[in-house]
Amino acid sequence: MKTISTLLLLLFIRICNAQVVVNGDFEVNVGGCHINEWNVDWNNYINDVYVFGEEPGAADILGPTCPDWGVAQSGSYFIGLSIVAADSGADAVALRVSGLLMADVDYRIRFFIKKDAAYLTDPIQVGLSMDSLSSGVLLETFPATFGTAWEEKEVFFTVDENQEAWITFTAVAANNGWMHIDNVRLDEATAVDNVDELAVSVWPNPTHDNLSISCGTNISNVVIYGVLGNVVLNQKLNASTAIIDISTFASGVYLVQTTTSDQRIGTSRITKK
Asked: Is the per-residue pLDDT at 229 higher than 60?
């Protein structure tokens, strides 16, 4: 038991020190669908997500109040990037990374993407910038081959020196396309190479009361650990989604361990306010 507790504590410390994409699930203070919004408006809805596309391009916040444009991969909201051939304005957004990226660490960006059913497809460039106003260094270009169903993509990179960073997404070309992006995440590639990692969406984060958990397969158990590795919740489940009440938890950081029926395990860090 002591060995297990020590391993959990080490895992917790590693995850708590890891960098994350701030508001990469696009779930904070959105309050409806918003088309062609610029930074002043964006910052009223989603903190630390910035728009820097070419005039007259801007980005869109989409959700349940505009269902004709699809549904989020998980949660309620997602974003749209487009290029209109008639004006060539390219939509682009930058998402802030919490904390410094560390030199010579192998990082992985994961995100979900699809195209809108009524539009064509544009390529999407993923970059790494040192500010929120430019695409920065190009990491990878994904060709215009996306379908109308959400699909997950990965980008791997390292940096030469410790630095603050923004992950950027830019629509390129002029195909009258409209691309949708959701659940942008960042982790250390070396931290997940040796485990059978499970893709789990946990939101909102931070949260005051309820915590939603979603997975692509059946969840059998959710365990939430405190900062010292102590179990604060152990709940049996038999569903691919769940809402867990943590309103009585003390404010602080917790580790959520999700186990599926086929014994795969996913871990997520959350903050209770």
From this structure: yes
User: What's the CATH architecture for 19-192?
Assistant: Sandwich (2.60)
The helix (H) or strand (E) run that includes residue 107 is strand 107-115
15 and 225 Cβ atoms separated by less than 8 Å = no
Is residue 151 within 8 A of residue 74, CB to CB? The reply is no
Token pair belonging to 122: 């544009």
How many CA atoms are closer than 13 Å to the CA of 34, on its beta-carbon side? 19
Task: Record the tokens describing residue 249, joined without a space.
Answer: 């938890």
Across-strand partners of 90?
83
| 29 close to 47: Cβ distance less than 8 angstroms | yes
The whole-angstrom separation of Cα 150 and Cα 65 is 19
CB atoms within 10 A of CB 88: 13
Chain segment 191-226, per-residue pLDDT in tens: 444 344 567 888 888 888 999 998 878 999 998 988
- Please list, in sequence order, all residues whose beta carbon lies within 8 angstroms of the beta carbon of residue 194, skipping any fewer than 6 positions away: none
Domain boundaries defined on the chain: 19-192, 195-272
| Residue bearing the bigger pLDDT, 153 or 268 | 153
- Comparing CA positions, the residue from 48, 126, 47 lying closest to residue 92 is 126
pLDDT tens-digit profile of 136-161?
999 999 988 888 999 999 898 988 88
From 113, 109, 75, select the one nearest 207 (Cα to Cα).
75
**Class of 195-272 in CATH:** mainly beta
Cβ atoms < 10 Å from Cβ of 255? 22
pTM tops 0.70: no
